[in-house]
Every structure is written in C-alpha cells, then in structure tokens.
C-alpha cells in the first residue's frame, strides 16, 4: 500500500508539471504565432487584401469542408492539395515567370542556366524577406509579387467558384462546382491561403532561413529546407527512446512480477444478474455496431473518390454525398462508436463492481442514450445539409460542419455532447461510489476508472476553447488537446483500468498487483503522452521549442509499447487458464489484438512519422493515414469491440453466443486491416515521401502525382483489404442479429450476485 501511495504521488506530480509545461507552450504559441495582417498592399499602394480578409477566408475554408477538403500546414485530408504548399509553389512560379519576361523578354524555361540561377537566387530573397510592419499591421509586397499574388488568387476564386475550365481539376480534387457561393468568401479565401503560404516561407523577425512554420513545407524554389534543429532533435529523440527502452527492460528484469493466481474452478461472473440499468446498456452496443457499419461504408466511398472524384463506378453520388461529407462521417463516426462502446462499458460495470444499483440509474442510462443518439443524428444531418447548401460561415460554426478533423460537429452539438459526458461521469460515479468508499484491494483500480472518466468528461471542454476567428495556430493547439489527450490519453487509461478490473473479477490476476501495475503504466504513458501532444504541432506556426519538446516526449510514448508483446502473451495464457475462461475467448483475443496493433500501428508506424525530420517530409501524406487506421481501429477499435463483447456476454443468454461468427469477425477484421494498411496505405505513403523529398510537398500532393498510375494502383489495392474488413464487420452484425433473435436476457435483479460485488 505504501508503494502504491508513492506511485499515486508521482502520477500527480507528473500530471501537474506536464500540463503546466503544455500550458506554457500554449502561451508561447500565442505570442510567437504568425501575425495576421490588417491589410496586404503593393509597393504602389494598391490593396490586395483588406482588414479581416484572412479571418473571413479561414472561416470560408472551414465552412467549405476545411480539413476534409485538402489541408493547411499539413493538417487535413490528402486528396485535394495542401493549400499552403500549393499556393506557395504557384506564387513562386508566377513571380519568377514575370521576372523572366521583364528582364529577358522570354519564358523562364527558355533561359540559359546562368539567367535561371540568377532568377532562382532572387526569388528566394524576395519570398523570404519579411515586410510585415507590426505598427501598422501591414504586409507590403513588391509590384511584381503583388501581380503574382493576384494571379494565384484568381485561380482559387475560380476553383472554388464554378469556372468551367477548372471542372477537370475539381474532379481530381473531389470538389463540387460552386463550393463557395459568395464572391466575397472566395476573395477572402485567397487571403487566408496567401497568409498560410506567406507564414510558411517568410523569415521570422531576427532570424535568417527560418520561417514561422520552421520552413515547412519542403519547397526548394524558396529555400524551404529542414532546419538544423529539425535534424538534431530527431537524432536526440531516437537516442532517448533507445535508452529509455533499455532502462525499462532493465527495470522489468530486476522486478519480477507476481505469478497470476490459480483461477477459480468456475466462472465467478456466471451467477451475475444484471440490474435494470445494466440491461439498459444493451441498446448502446447495437448502435455501436450500426455506427461501425456506417463508418466502414463511408470509408469505402471516401477511398473510391481518390480515383473517380465525385462518382462511384460512374454513378454521380458525389452530388448528394460529396467527399467532404463522406470523410467527415467516416472520421467522426470512428470516434463516436469507439467512445460509445467505452461509455456503455462504464455504465455496465459500475453496478457490477460496487454491487449497488443507484435509484433512477436506469432512467439516467436511458436518458443519456437518447441524448447521444440525438446528438449523433442531429450533428450528422446538419453537417451534411450545411456542406451541400453552404448556408454561411456562421451556420457552419454553430450548427453545421466546423471543418476540423475529428472535431467537426457544430459548436451547439459540442456543447450538448459535453453536457452528455458530464451526465455519464455522474452516472458512473453514482454506480461506483459504494466501491470507492469501501476499503478493498481493487479500490485503486476503481479510483483510476473514475478519475480517467472525470478527465474524459472534463477535457472535452477543450473543444469549446476556439471561436470563429481564433488564430489557426491556436485552433490546432487546442484541437490536439482534444484529439490526442482525450482520445489517445484518458480513454486509453480508462480502458486499461477497466480491463484490469475485469480480469481481477474473473480471478485471473491479483488485485493488489493490478493496482500498482495500472498506476505505474499510467505514469509511464502520461509522462510521454501529455507533452508528446506537441509532435502534432511541429510546423503549425509554433516556436522552435515545440520541435525539441515534442520530439523528445513523443519518443517516450513508444517506450511502454516495447513490453506490449509480453502483456499480450500473458493475456493469451490467461485465456487458457481454465476451461470456463473459453467463454471469454473472443473479448480476450480482442485485447491481444490491441497489443499487436499497439506495437505495429502506434509503435512502428507511429514512430516512423513522429520524429521532426520524418514528419517534415511526410506530414499530410498517406503514411499518416496508415498510422491512423492501424492505431485508431487496431488499438482503440479493437478495445471497444473487446469491451462490448465482454458486456454482451453478461447481457444475453449464453446459448445465443456464436463463436463461429465471432471467429470470422475477428480474423476478417484484423486481416483486412493489415491488408489495407500494408498493401495500399504504406506503399502509397512511401511513394509520396519519395516525391516530397525529391520535389517538394506541393508535388507529392499535386493531382499529377496523386492521380498518377502508381498512386491510383495503390488505391485499387485497397479493395481486397476493404472487402475482407467489411465482411468482418458484417459477421459482427450477424452476431448481433443472432443475439436479438435467440438471446433472452437474464432476469434483472434488485441486487447483484455476491461474486460480482466482492471487493
């Protein structure tokens, strides 16, 4: 107990110091973020972009689909260009061409090598010179550069409008004509894209060769190449990771873990009688399966748009379900169904752990279910309508689609979801409270479940921190607080603690050992995970300190994954511990799959893009998608399915169970995911990385490369994996139908069986 108390103290200290450091970085981003000009003018006094144009352009882009329609500073989708890289390249070419005609009377391509070299050198000087005046808030451009900016601005105004000559390009970008209806929005959009590219290439005040985005994107034309700190901190992070893994292995070898206890002769949960509130969680899990099916369908359609743009085998489905909508649903439903599975698991196990059914608990569980259903359906419908009708920037922010990846629902829906999560924490706390008050060996585990649940509910408030015109660098800062810390942080702690509790209730691990192990694992995970959030922010208008801190701590995130294989093997041994454990074979195998995908998806594929030098060339490429699919579904998705199956085991009669369907589901889903990742996404990501290194980010994301024979071949190579994966989710749906058809639920009890309530 004394050792566990020390671990809790260390956990508290690490959390306080880490969040203090993360908050300090936020203040530094606020101070040093690229300045938003009040106006952009030419040296002749002509106004290119007026006051407020950049902010309105940011709103217009987000309302048009935002990060579901290309990316800015590398964050967003991969089919349309990275608009900051695309603008930068187009402006550089336009300016250089103007100089060639002015000075030599012919096109740049017709000049000799000496004349071309002279223009190339002048281009770097011109594009990197910082002409922002802080007192007046004005960026002043030379007359020639102003003309180049106007030329590029016309291209984007026509692209986001309905200019017929750009129809083929829109098709390649999976865009519909008239994406932005108002001419004022299209003009402002150009201001935002210009500003994002200007920030990416203009030297910071007092710095030479260092832009506001640390020289991202890679663009040889303007001298955007990796900085020395990008390379140095990448090397340092790898060294630290190797040293930390060695230290952890040494620590593990010196501290022999206790052997698992002799398992009970019979299933301790066999006599568990679910309470009314536990039975009320059944409908959550069937909604989870429905969301999985919808997410997979949208994923297949979204992937196909990479070939046909706005059609599905010639059917113009993109007119009613465009890429921005299908991808929004695909990414949003992924988070929602995983979260719903975990929320329902918490509501199910709370009475099972405490042996207490609070008054009106069933009413609260039902109320929360219908509230969540309303939020999911409402946010999806209004986001879809907003994307098709484009009723305005204000509608998009408050009710429609905010255009931010994984956090796309309108602000009203975010507020309602936050309230719903607080209700969930309240219901969970009411159910766990008797167990939290009662001294027991597993009280530490129960406390970890409740504390992580409080963080899940409380930290969703970070989705409410930005406004319609918040600086884009700060939006990204707060967005990753939510996506990384909420999804990849506290939900994982919650799930790990829940799994440990389930194993202790089954008598497969000792409660005392699990107590210390969970706190220690949480310390190791959060020590790297909290500040590791910054690896998403290397090149988003942040100070160079973000590269140093993010690189070192994100390397530490990989360290605990080195022991995942050992834990997975132990879980496999536990699945063979006694004959009755076979009843929980598939939930346990799902937890073993989590270990595999933690190593492969979060570890190998994650670290392959986490170092600054790797991400410099691969940010916004398909290697990120490979990591995202393998980690999000492989780790968090399989966790959600495993927890769901464990709960369904107690909610339906055991003769309704079909091991055959679950076997087909398990192997199809995991094999299909592996095929999708390693036959399509990883090769496509490597090809893009080579193109990015050789020519620049603009080229790796250009329609010429994205729609090349090689890249479209990789898209078609997704089909076998997608089919196998989709079949796996189909088997899961059939399993659910079998439960509904044959599974008479155990009769509800006023109080739980003593085996379930035992501390």
UniProtKB/TrEMBL annotation:
InterPro entries: Cyt_c_oxase-like_su1_sf, Cyt_C_Oxase_1, NorB_cytochrome_c-like. One of its GO terms (cellular component) is membrane. One of its GO terms (biological process) is aerobic respiration. It comes from the Bacteria. The chain crosses the membrane at residues 231-251, 284-307, 334-353, 365-385, 412-433, 445-466, 478-504, 516-539, 545-566, 586-609, 629-652, 664-693, 713-736. It comes from Azospira restricta. Pfam families: COX1, NorB_cytochrome_c-like. Residues 37-218 form the Nitric oxide reductase subunit B cytochrome c-like domain. Keywords: Membrane, Transmembrane, Transmembrane helix. One of its GO terms (molecular function) is cytochrome-c oxidase activity. This is Nitric-oxide reductase large subunit. The keyword Transmembrane helix applies.
